[in-house]
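Narrative of activities, Objective 1.

The group set out to show that a structural description can be obtained from nothing but a protein's sequence at a throughput compatible with the screening campaign. Below is one input-output pair from the validation batch, recorded exactly as produced.
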Amino acid sequence: MTWRNTEFELGGVNHLALVCSDMQRTVEFYTEILGMRLVKTIDLPMDAGQHFFFDMGGGNLLAFFWFKDAPDAVPGVSTATTSPGIGDFTTAVGTMNHVAISVPEERFLEYRAKLKSKGVKVAPIIDHDDSPMGYAPEFHDDVYIRSFYFQDPDGILLEFACWRRELAQPGDVGHTPKTASDRRPRSASTV
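Output recorded for this entry:
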């Protein structure tokens, strides 16, 4: 049985809007490397920038803004410096840490090899499970999602992920949410 939200009839993410430094390079990466289709382009009023939309499949869109006066990304603050499985991928509160894109499990390894053949640096495969570390050193039947990470030309962290089972099973929800008082804020000098 499919769960139904009785508060709001939500249909998923309409689009996620990110910011790029070079729209032409972004169009080339997302269309030529990832095979997305560019479906809408907008020049913003008063020559402020552009807003482009890419069809990711399944009714999902990924959008990018290019702002003439956008500040540069700050790795380790506004963007991850690296991928999970390689190093610290922490980003600041209020930032978008990464975009996970669903791929079919039966094509997961093929897609990883295809990205590598196109010159994209991909991180190791992470087999997420419920062990204390949250991932398995070796693939096994209790892995609930497989994924690997890579970055776009602006350092935006992307993930190809495939669910191996439905979530909300017994044991999937059982952690007490942390609060702001549980944080260990990093000072500007440690970033």
